[in-house]
């Protein structure tokens, strides 16, 4: 009889019964697998709840139908589970990684990350993946016996490496970190528990990463259309999207715009998901991995888009970048959000006592790098709304993000 909560998985899936364990050993649960426990701890964390009021592209008050970090995360989780189920991976681990992948994101979307990256350049830098690791290993304080959530090795390595190795075989930073170096927070934790930074993550993390790309493409098309940043006919410049629109119009001539958008978005998701499953099947058959370690040690990812769909993904992103992410309205909001966060960072560095009392405990006032990290942790954890309220508390004039 299989243990409670177990299901079939392929030999190359991460097995919760064979987990490398947690930094702080804990007794096994009689009702949940190790990866199910990780998922549940993430869902119950304060950082996860704050995703509800963190921006994807639009600020929180622009409309209830636009995505937030939380709704994006839920969509990624659904896609990651579907991919894991189809490819024989552990669904619970894939879900845990999808649910945790955005925990380190700042308020105001990528604007916040850009501000903190610039402000922290002299103090070890800022990276949202590294910040997510700080959250789940240090900043969440819910347990009497340890800081963080004490997640399994497999969840932590997937969280850090879902976009690929951070080091090459010689121990040098890979291209993503060639200029800035691997973030200090990751190196510090890696000294405590080796996450094997020179290898790929397991298949579940790869599935969560590609699910993130799929969800981004689909919901940014949806949000951009509904916000009026571009119209549906403009999407025809992307051959992949034009093909789908032709299919919809052939099946449902005269369909109203709202349903037409829904039909487009769901077909975008379906085509990408089916492609990843087919390409994953092909790569896994060629690799013939007998264990999760074989996937980690492979020369390239096992779970990803085909060459054709990589081009489609790039084309969609190439359209969205100028039409949505750099739209004049979005850029105006980003400019004002940038000012809010820069003001807050400067004030807290100059007057640390302006932060709430719990953030002043053992405050390293005479250690500028540690103080800067404390300020970055505080600001990174803010929701859009809270950042605006903090600015209103400390400054006479606050930009109106509309």
From TrEMBL:
The keyword Hydrolase applies. Keywords: Hydrolase. Pfam families: HD (PF01966), HD_assoc (PF13286). It comes from the Bacteria. InterPro entries: dGTPase (IPR006261), dGTPase-like (IPR050135), dNTPase_2 (IPR023023), HD/PDEase_dom (IPR003607), HD_domain (IPR006674), PHydrolase_assoc_dom (IPR026875). GO terms for biological process: dGTP catabolic process. GO terms for molecular function: dGTPase activity. Residues 69-217 form the HD domain. Residues 15-36 are annotated as: Disordered. Belongs to the dGTPase family. Type 2 subfamily. This is Deoxyguanosinetriphosphate triphosphohydrolase-like protein. It comes from Microvirga brassicacearum. The lineage of its organism: Bacteria, Pseudomonadati, Pseudomonadota, Alphaproteobacteria, Hyphomicrobiales.
């Amino acid at each position: 009889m299989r243990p409670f909560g177990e299901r079939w998985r392929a030999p190359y899936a991460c097995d919760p019964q064979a987990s490398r364990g947690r930094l702080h050993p804990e007794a096994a649960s009689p009702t949940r697998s190790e990866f199910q426990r990780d998922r549940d701890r993430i869902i119950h964390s304060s950082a996860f709840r704050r995703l509800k009021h963190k921006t994807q592209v639009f600020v929180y008050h622009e409309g209830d139908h636009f995505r937030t970090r939380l709704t994006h995360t839920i969509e990624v989780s659904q896609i990651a589970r579907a991919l894991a189920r189809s490819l024989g991976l552990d669904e619970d681990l894939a879900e845990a990684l999808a649910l945790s992948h955005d925990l380190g994101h700042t308020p105001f979307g990528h604007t916040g990350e850009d501000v903190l990256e610039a402000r922290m350049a002299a103090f070890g830098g800022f990276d949202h993946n590294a910040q997510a690791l700080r959250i789940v290993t240090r900043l969440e304080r819910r347990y009497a016996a340890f800081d963080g959530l004490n997640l399994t090795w497999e969840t932590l390595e997937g969280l850090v490496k879902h976009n690929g190795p951070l080091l090459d075989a010689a121990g040098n930073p890979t291209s993503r970190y060639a200029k800035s170096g691997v973030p200090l927070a990751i190196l510090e934790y890696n000294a405590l528990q080796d996450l094997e930074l020179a290898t790929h993550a397991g298949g579940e993390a790869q599935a969560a990463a590609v699910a993130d790309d799929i969800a981004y493409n689909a919901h940014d098309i949806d949000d951009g259309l509904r916000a009026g940043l571009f119209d549906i006919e403009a999407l025809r410049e992307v051959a992949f999207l034009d093909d789908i629109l032709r299919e919809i119009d052939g099946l449902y001539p005269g369909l109203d715009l709202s349903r037409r958008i829904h039909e487009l978005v769901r077909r975008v998701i379906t085509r990408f998901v089916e492609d990843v499953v087919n390409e994953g099947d092909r790569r896994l058959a060629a690799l013939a991995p007998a264990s999760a370690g074989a996937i980690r040690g492979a020369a390239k990812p096992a779970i990803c888009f085909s060459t054709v769909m990589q081009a489609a993904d790039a084309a969609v992103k190439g359209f969205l970048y100028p039409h949505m992410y750099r739209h004049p309205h979005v850029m105006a909001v980003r400019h004002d959000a940038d000012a809010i966060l820069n003001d807050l960072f400067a004030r807290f560095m100059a007057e640390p006592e302006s932060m709430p009392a719990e953030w002043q405990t053992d405050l390293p006032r005479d250690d500028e790098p540690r103080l800067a990290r404390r300020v970055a942790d505080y600001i990174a954890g803010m929701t859009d709304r809270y950042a605006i309220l903090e600015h209103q508390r400390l400054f006479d004039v606050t930009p109106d993000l509309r």
